[in-house]
Amino acid sequence: MSSYTTPDFLAIGVLTYDVTPERENVHGRVRPGGAAAFAAMCARSLGLKTAVVASAGPEYPLATVLPGVDVHLVESDFTTFFQNVYGPSGTRKQILGARASCITLSDIPAAWRDASIVFLGPLVGEVPVNAKDWFPESAVGAAVQGWLRRWDQYGLITEETGPSSELAKGITPGYRLLAGSRMEFPREEQQSMVALGEYARVIGVTDGENGSHVYSGNTRTKIHAYPANEIDPTGAGDIWAAACLIRLVETDDLIEAAHFANAAASISVEREGLSGAPSRLEIAERMGRRNV
Hints:
Strand order of the largest sheet: 5-4-1-8-9-12-13-14-15
Structural class: alpha/beta
CATH architecture: 3-Layer(aba) Sandwich
Largest sheet: 9 strands, mixed
Distance between the termini: 41 Å
Strand content: 25-35%
Oligomer: single chain
């Protein structure tokens, strides 16, 4: 049930089903997901009053997928689903099987537009690149992957890289954080990252076991990784982005926020799916394993 009181943290995006092939299951393993879901569960685990505006089919099991989170569902004829295949090096091939409705400003409950922190989690362009303008008083961050994805007639997903012309056409300045991975920024060209920095105070680029890089203005800082026994990497980038955004707002300390996010992501990959969101105590303990 939705509660239209102002949350601390609002996540926006589609809810999904992710299908991963398994040897013992010809139909594959089906799990709920979506960037907004992972970000919301991260915020909830960190103690924030959390809400989600998401599009999905009416059958979606909201209560079990997002316990303790207020959800406003934008009903759709379909729920977005992907088939995910991971290679031995961790690379992922994705097929888009269905796409839920886009989300517009009119879908955001009025009381939720004053959330302190807003996370945009587009997966296949269902949230517009200028959605930051819907929240003039909020700290807004986004995972850029869903603005760079393209798909062909068979649903095969490909990605543009860097601050693409399509992204640049509509994005507006003022983001607190824009986050992506090496998949989105494979070269991390300094000139390109500085250009993208015109739209955000911080750019975060994650690189799995190699840690992350954060950009602020002309400054680039490498943040070390925290060792992890990886079980499931799905959603780790979204948890990184949500954790970094939250900690940026709390401390205004980029390096602290990035270390916090690296630790959070390292914990998340040691667990299955949406159960991976860590608590503050777990993050503090993980950060304590290395001098930061």
